[in-house]
């Protein structure tokens, strides 16, 4: 039922519900299409009822789509039905998820250890696997229900490859494991054998002449024919009572005829006996009449033809044997839709008497709860299925009546509606509607770009920003500027909007330049010719405002072809919300427009609210206005929106109510900021809308880690697979990139400096407010201070307590009973919750109060608890229902200790996040969670997981330790084909190449990062012992067995003892990063010419390597390579241009590095030296000559030079500080090269690359006698210069004459004072006024 509080928002509510209904229905249908679930449902005897439910889902989805397309204007009549339909679809989704949960419990076991195969994992098999001994089938194998079950099983094996191999010469009743349900092996002749189809009796030959795929196609044909005959019979029984409507392809079937689809008789519509609900027709005669039927309870097959009737069926149902099995199958259990969640599953029995399996689950419980036994309750599920089906029929009947009631009038109104709403974007013009505040810097930059001399041609400058930020206003300012009007002979303004039509745009451009209309000209080619004629030899400015379409470059080129032919040049200024548009068409870097500065925004706000930017009369209103301004995030359209509301009444009450209710956030406000932002939201695909709305649960400016955010979206089912080869995670990152491109998210820099840290994102400006607005019916946040009542439709809830709990002086969290009471009072209607997020700190009293919430939220998919307290594990164990949970994140500052064993029963869990800083104790049987995609914990915890190979969906395994014990063999990796990141250590325990091949790295197509590690010896003696146990040849053979797939991008090899690199390394064509460390005998690396994408190379602790040849790189690191003498580049020119990070440390034999030789060739080629370098480190290279002054470029952010001849010690640290020489405070940093330097000039220091330097310190240069003050004069940003312990600098009582002249000629700063000079305590020189050095201190050591 739709709550009354929404009665005034029916239109917006309907819009919010519309996409979600279609998305929900498709999600359920996708889940039901999974082959393993289909097969299990038929095995459990629910196939017929679930088919009915699936059909109703499809019908109601089509019917809803038809009604939605036609119903316009006031949608109030639909809203309540839409709300009921949405609730019902959620119930159906929970039902399907429950069934899948029990499917996972009903999985094969071996030796008491449960092994589950996830449906996403392809099952590989050959003939050696497929033939198994089996008893001869009986007549019941012909049952239609079992045929469909087997057909589902066949689909699971669709990816099986290769022809079948004959494994036995014995002739007998043997069958194929996947095909065995349909064939018997009856004869064999050499490499061929003859099998018999148990359905049609045909006997095809198998082997060289016939493959598995052909056998499957034959079975599918037989299955299809049987199913078709059954469907034809079913249709004949109720065609007379079925009503159909076919409006725009939507078919709605009368609910009564569908409800009774299987209880009709062929004779004149006579009702069939209710006994048929216990049977499935398994055989029909030539007239499609039922001959045999199969009992869904005991699998018995009975005759039911015209001669027998249904009396035999009734007697069978009442028989003791069938009744006993029926009762056994209907033992009570607690499904997830009941009041209490399943807390301990001990034994589950599902299926018929032949296939029923019993699974022993974990009987351990950290809570001390008494284990319970929950058996399969088939009757309960049947009741739920039929109830949902009946309610879907009711709703589809309502939709059918709506279509009948309005009839063809819907079509006309729909067409009118589409013509009106096809382009909701406002058209713009070049006229500035009001004064524009701010944007002076951006305007000046654009005008300078447009008017400066540049080669002829067309230039495209994009302006990118979110809705309402002022893109159009800035373009109008530029367009109307007198300088622009004088510079361009022709100015053109075209409003593009969301309809990129080349014909329309060409006509509008032509109308502007010709002063005539060309409405009758419909030929695009002719328009282009006329346009070219009008603009030839003219300097043209074209404004394309509000571009939306991500059109391809060909369409763009076609539109602008006449302008590009202009000999005087064309400048195009383009405004868009999409960064992708700017990237496609822009020829220069786009201007990314941000919020207005506070001062400009305050003036704009006063102008909008009071009509006067200088208004000062009512200070009380100004105080309220300042509070409102803080909420508007500097968005000009937001100021205009709220100003329009405030000007209605300049009273304190009116303004305060608007502040309190935040009325400007209403999407119903025509022309308001939220309606403008919602236009962007409405154009998102439904999946992206879900991802965006979910983030409303988190506080404003919350920093989302990209990997974590994508994992959440996947766990919630928002990320959908398509037919591409991309993983769910790759699709999720595509979703995030799209949201960033459209301005919904913005990437920000993290405070952490860890280079391996994940990228971080926040919601841009007012986008968080938009997310709250569009998601308010299902997403809610309860804040400790801002209490809000939880709506009954809420399914996703976050509880934020930062403002309510504060730690005391002992870092403990004091209890806040008031806050607990307030927050718990808002938590109602918890049964529907799918998400529960706790943000910030809570005490254990609070968590104990929330045990009831966790118990009631038995449909929970995601639970996240930040800053958890000690002792939370038992709470989780006793409270969380594990039937549906996909995502569990629990973090505690002091660690979680031993994780509860009950976690191994979370069959649907995809993400378990327990923090990466502390090492928890992993549950013994965590390998049972076969759907687990991400286990986020400390790396050492992975080594304790036995049989980790059962986790076939796992994406990351950073530390698999090979051990010589069961469950930890290298072959555990073979089945983990979904791995993206893998680290394998202790490879000395792998003894043969065959063992290494057993890891199956070559088959891991998604593997992107691989780390292969042998145990590194700690001393020479240990190294020799290691060599004695693992010879060079053995190491080389083993590493050959670890050949990865060609998709590998990042490779680390450490501790490898062979002297040859693996042969596959040179063929790893996708490799981007190569890190080789501690490989003591490795002498030669392969040529990297065949690795076109290699960008980072790091070689560390390589004592035997003497020569390295590298390609063009972005990062090069060489550390502790004592014999490395020669270094060559495949392309010195490319390396010089691309290199960003260079580190060379402890390479005493190196004397030549190509980029450090004479820079003459760079000058000849007019190329700068290392123009892109960001970081340069050279330590401990006493023979390496550097012929260039440092730093090499203005882009340098970190520079460290120690123990390099001809150069003193140089350090550039963050904060724009440069230190030259050793610290005088101690001798730990003593550098002999600093003592060698006598003159500090432009041959050592590139002063022109240090114009941003603020602090300079020269320390401990004992023989320094001269400093180039001319060079110092180039340090225009210098604030402080300090010279210490330079004995020979100014050693006499009088400054040397050449130094005095140099100081005067160098435009030295005013008021320089040299302190500490003997005999002259106040030598001062005055220079040019523009210098800004504040002080200089020179200390003379004694």
From TrEMBL:
Membrane listed as a keyword: no
Molecular function in Gene Ontology: ADP binding; DNA binding; zinc ion binding
GO annotation terms (biological process): defense response to other organism
Annotated ranges, domain BED-type: 270-329
InterPro entries: Disease_R_plants, LRR_dom_sf, LRR_R13L1-DRL21, NB-ARC, P-loop_NTPase, WH-like_DNA-bd_sf, WHD_DRP, Znf_BED
The entry's keywords: Metal-binding, Plant defense, Zinc, Zinc-finger
PANTHER family: DISEASE RESISTANCE PROTEIN RP, OS04G0620950 PROTEIN
UniProt-recorded name of the protein: BED-type domain-containing protein
Native source species: Aegilops tauschii subsp. strangulata (Goatgrass)
């Amino acid at each position: 039922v739709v709550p009354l509080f929404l009665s005034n928002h029916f239109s917006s509510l309907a819009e919010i519900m519309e996409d979600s209904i279609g998305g929900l229905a498709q999600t359920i249908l996708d889940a039901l299409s999974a082959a393993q679930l289909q097969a299990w449902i038929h095995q459990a005897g629910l196939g017929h009822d679930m088919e009915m439910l699936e059909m109703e889902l499809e019908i109601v989805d089509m019917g809803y789509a038809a009604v939605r397309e036609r119903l316009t204007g006031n949608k109030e009549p639909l809203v309540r039905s839409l709300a009921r339909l949405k609730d019902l679809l959620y119930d159906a989704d929970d039902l399907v998820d429950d069934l899948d949960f029990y499917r996972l419990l009903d999985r094969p076991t071996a030796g008491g250890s449960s092994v589950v195969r996830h449906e996403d994992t392809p099952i590989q098999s050959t003939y050696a696997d497929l033939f198994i001994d089996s008893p001869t089938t009986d007549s019941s194998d012909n049952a239609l229900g079992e045929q469909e079950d087997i057909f589902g099983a066949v689909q699971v094996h669709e990816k099986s490859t290769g022809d079948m191999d004959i494994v036995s010469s014995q002739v007998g009743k043997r069958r194929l494991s996947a095909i065995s349900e349909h064939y018997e092996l009856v004869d064999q002749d050499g490499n061929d054998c003859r099998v018999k189809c148990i359905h049609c009796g045909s006997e095809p030959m198998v082997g060289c002449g016939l493959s598995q795929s052909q056998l499957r196609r034959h079975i599918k044909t037989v299955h299809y024919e049987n199913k078709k005959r059954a469907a034809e019979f079913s249709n004949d029984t109720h065609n007379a009572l079925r009503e159909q409507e076919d409006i725009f392809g939507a078919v709605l079937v009368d609910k009564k005829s569908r409800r009774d689809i299987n209880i009709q008789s062929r004779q004149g519509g006579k009702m069939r006996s209710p006994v048929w609900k216990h049977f499935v027709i398994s055989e029909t005669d030539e007239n499609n009449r039922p001959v045999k039927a199969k009992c869904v309870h005991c699998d018995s097959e009975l005759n039911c033809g015209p001669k027998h009737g249904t009396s035999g069926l009734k007697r069978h149902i009442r028989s003791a044997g069938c009744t006993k099995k029926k009762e056994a199958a209907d033992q009570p259990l607690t499904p997830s839709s009941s009041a209490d969640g399943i807390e301990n599953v001990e034994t589950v029995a599902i299926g018929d008497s032949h296939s029923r399996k019993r699974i022993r689950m974990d009987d351990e419980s950290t809570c001390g709860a008494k284990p319970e036994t929950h058996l399969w309750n088939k009757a309960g599920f049947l009741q739920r299925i039929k109830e949902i089906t009946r309610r879907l029929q009711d709703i589809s009947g309502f939709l059918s009546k709506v279509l009948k009631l309005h009839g063809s009038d819907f079509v006309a109104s729909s067409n009118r509606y589409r013509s009106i709403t096809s382009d909701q974007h406002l058209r713009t013009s070049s006229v500035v509607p009001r004064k524009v505040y701010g944007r002076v810097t951006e305007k000046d930059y654009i005008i300078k770009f447009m008017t400066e001399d540049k080669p002829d041609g067309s230039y495209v400058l994009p302006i990118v920003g979110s809705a309402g930020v002022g893109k159009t206003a800035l373009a109008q300012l530029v367009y109307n500027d007198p300088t622009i009007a004088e510079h361009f002979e022709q100015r053109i303004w075209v409003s593009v909007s969301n309809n990129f039509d080349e014909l329309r745009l060409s006509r509008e451009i032509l109308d502007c330049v010709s002063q005539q209309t060309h409405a009758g000209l419909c030929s695009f080619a002719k328009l282009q010719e006329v346009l070219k004629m009008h603009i030839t030899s003219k300097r043209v400015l074209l404004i394309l405002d509000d571009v939306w379409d991500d059109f391809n470059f060909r369409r763009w080129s076609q539109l602008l072809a006449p302008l590009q032919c202009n000999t005087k040049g064309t400048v195009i200024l383009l405004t868009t919300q999409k960064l992708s548009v700017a990237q496609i068409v822009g020829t220069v870097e786009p201007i990314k427009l941000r919020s207005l500065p506070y001062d400009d925004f305050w003036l704009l706000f006063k102008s909008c609210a009071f009509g006067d930017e200088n208004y000062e009369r009512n200070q009380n209103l100004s105080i309220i206005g300042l509070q409102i301004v803080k909420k508007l995030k500097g968005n000009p359209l937001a100021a205009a929106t709220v100003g329009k509301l405030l000007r209605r009444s300049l009273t304190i009450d009116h303004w305060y109510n608007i502040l309190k209710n935040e009325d400007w956030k209403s999407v119903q406000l025509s022309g308001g900021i939220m309606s403008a932002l919602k236009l962007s939201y409405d154009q998102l695909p439904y999946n992206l809308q879900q991802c965006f709305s979910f983030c409303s649960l988190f506080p404003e400016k919350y920093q989302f880690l990209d990997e974590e955010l994508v994992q959440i979206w996947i766990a919630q089912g928002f990320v959908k697979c398509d037919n591409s080869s991309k993983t769910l995670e790759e699709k999720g990152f595509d979703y995030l990139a799209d949201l960033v491109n459209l301005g919904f998210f913005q990437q920000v820099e993290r405070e952490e400096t860890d280079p391996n840290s994940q990228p971080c994102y926040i919601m841009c400006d007012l986008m968080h407010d938009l997310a709250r607005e569009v998601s308010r019916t299902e997403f809610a946040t309860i804040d400790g201070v801002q209490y809000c009542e939880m709506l009954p439709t809420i399914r996703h809830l976050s509880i934020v307590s930062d403002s309510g709990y504060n730690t005391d002086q002992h870092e403990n969290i004091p209890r806040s009973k008031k806050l607990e009471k307030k927050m718990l009072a808002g938590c109602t209607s918890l049964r529907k919750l799918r998400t529960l997020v706790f943000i910030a700190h809570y005490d254990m009293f609070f968590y104990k109060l929330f045990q009831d919430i966790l118990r009631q939220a038995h449909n929970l998919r995601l639970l996240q608890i930040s800053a958890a307290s000690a002792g939370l594990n038992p709470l989780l164990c006793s409270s969380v229902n594990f039937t549906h949970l996909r995502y569990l994140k629990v973090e505690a500052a002091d660690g979680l200790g031993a994780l509860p064993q009950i976690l191994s029963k979370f069959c649907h869990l995809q993400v378990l996040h327990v923090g990466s800083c502390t090492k928890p104790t992993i549950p013994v049987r965590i390998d049972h969670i076969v759907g687990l995609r991400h286990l986020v914990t400390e790396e050492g915890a992975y080594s304790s997981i036995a049989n980790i190979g059962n986790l076939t969906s796992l994406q990351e395994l950073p530390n698999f330790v090979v051990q010589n014990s069961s469950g930890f063999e290298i072959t555990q990796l073979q089945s983990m084909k979904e791995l993206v990141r893998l680290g394998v250590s202790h490879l000395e325990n792998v003894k043969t190449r065959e063992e290494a091949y057993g890891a199956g790295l070559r088959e891991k197509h998604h593997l992107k990062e691989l780390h292969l590690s042998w145990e590194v010896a700690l001393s020479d003696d240990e190294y020799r012992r290691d060599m004695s146990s693992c010879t060079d040849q053995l190491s080389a053979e083993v590493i050959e067995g670890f050949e990865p797939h060609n998709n590998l991008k990042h490779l680390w090899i450490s501790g490898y003892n062979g002297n040859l690199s693996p042969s596959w390394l040179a063929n790893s064509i996708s490799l981007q990063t190569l890190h080789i460390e501690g490989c003591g005998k490795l002498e030669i690396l392969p040529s990297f010419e065949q690795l076109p994408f290699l960008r980072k190379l790091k070689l560390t602790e390589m004592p035997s390597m003497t020569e390295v040849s590298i390609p063009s790189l972005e990062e090069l690191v060489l550390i502790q390579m004592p014999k490395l003498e020669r270094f060559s580049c495949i392309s010195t020119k490319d390396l010089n241009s691309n290199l960003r990070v260079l580190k060379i440390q402890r390479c005493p034999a190196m004397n030549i590095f190509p980029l450090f030789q004479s820079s003459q060739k760079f000058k000849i080629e007019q190329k700068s030296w290392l123009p892109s370098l960001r970081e340069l480190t050279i330590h401990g290279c006493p023979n390496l000559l550097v012929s260039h002054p440092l730093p090499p470029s203005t882009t340098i952010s970190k520079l460290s030079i120690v123990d390099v001849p001809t150069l003193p010690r140089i350090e550039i640290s963050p904060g724009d500080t440069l230190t030259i020489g050793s610290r005088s405070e101690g001798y730990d940093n003593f550098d002999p090269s600093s003592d060698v330097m006598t003159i500090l000039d432009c041959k050592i220091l590139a002063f022109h690359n240090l114009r941003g330097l603020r602090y300079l310190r020269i320390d401990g240069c004992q023989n320094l006698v001269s400093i180039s003050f001319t060079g110092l004069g180039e340090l225009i940003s210098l604030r402080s210069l300090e010279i210490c312990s330079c004995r020979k600098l100014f050693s006499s009582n009088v400054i040397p004459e050449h130094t005095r002249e140099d100081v005067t000629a160098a435009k030295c700063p005013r008021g320089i004072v040299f302190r500490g000079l003997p005999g002259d305590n106040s030598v001062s020189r005055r220079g040019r006024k523009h210098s800004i050095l504040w002080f200089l201190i020179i200390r003379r050591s004694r």
